Amino acid sequence: MPNNSNYDLSFQPNTYWDLRDVLTHVDARVTGKVRKELVKHALQNGETVPSEYLKSSLSEDLKQSIGSIDPSFLGGE
Question: What is the per-residue pLDDT across 47-61, written as a single tens digit (0 to 9) for each?
Fold first, then answer.
């Protein structure tokens, strides 16, 4: 049995995923061009992204909500 005093058991990494793997996932799964770029930019800058934005497509309600912010978000998703 290893000696637990050799390890920092309270350590918690910021993420359990390698950023390259997340960006590859975003490139492969996120269909909206503008959303894909926004998500990639946010992740590269250490920002959090709602899990709904990482899905391949958005729900109709979310599309309408985002589209009401700016009409440029209505097309291409």
Answer: 999 888 888 888 888
Integer Cα distance of 34 and 12 in angstroms: 32
The position carrying tokens 């920002």 is: 47
Name residue 74's amino acid: L
Domains in the chain, number:
1
Give a yes or no: residue 6 inside a domain.
Answer: no
Structure tokens at 14: 């910021």
Single pTM value for the model: 0.62
Q: Which two tokens stand for residue 22?
A: 């997340």
10's tokens: 């309270």
